[in-house]
Amino acid sequence: MMRHLTHADYTTMAWANGKGRTVEMLRVEEGGRLKWRLSRASVVENGDFSLFPGIERNLTVLTGPGFDLVGEGLHLAARPLMPVTFPGDLALRAEGVSAPSDDFNVMTARALPRPEVAVMTGRAQLSPGGLLAIYALAPSTLNDRAMESQDLILTADTARVDGQVLVVRLMG
After folding, report:
1. Where are the alpha helices (DSSP H) in the chain?
2. Dist CA 71 CA 68 (whole Å)
3. pLDDT in tens, the chain (172 residues)
4. Exposure winner among 19, 36, 131, 170, fewest CB in 10 A?
5. Using the 8-state DSSP alphabet, how is residue 152 labeled?
6. Structural domains for the chain
């Protein structure tokens, strides 16, 4: 099974808090509730993050300098190509925004195992297990299939990647 998504397959929508826009690449619901969501967004100014009760979040800054995520009892440095995780129902603010930063977001229902998220550059072989979501950060290949920047391929099979990609392994 392999599904290749491009920008034409994505949906652009307003943030839950109305202060920005998100490009949703994949959304899977089960029983009318969010199971998984993969999206991109731009953080262009200091401000509150939307709340998502019952959801675990993983954010990776793809371009720009990054920013800090600050909330009660939590201070995370969201820096380029370094995934950070946080609960979706914790009130957080983006602070220290000095220039726009584009980020890749993974949201999963809290009851599911946490996703594995990694940025890979060069050649690698990924073993099967769960659903692999491979997002091209630059022109790359997956099992000899060409990927343009911002393409997303979903597979449950062994994946040979070459290029610069963000890999998400979703379980459950």
Report:
1. none
2. 10
3. 799 999 999 999 987 777 778 999 999 999 999 999 999 999 999 999 989 999 999 999 999 999 999 999 899 999 999 999 999 999 999 999 999 999 999 999 999 999 999 999 999 999 999 999 999 999 999 999 999 999 999 999 999 999 999 999 999 8
4. 19
5. E
6. 10-109 (2.60.120.10), 116-170 (2.60.120.10)
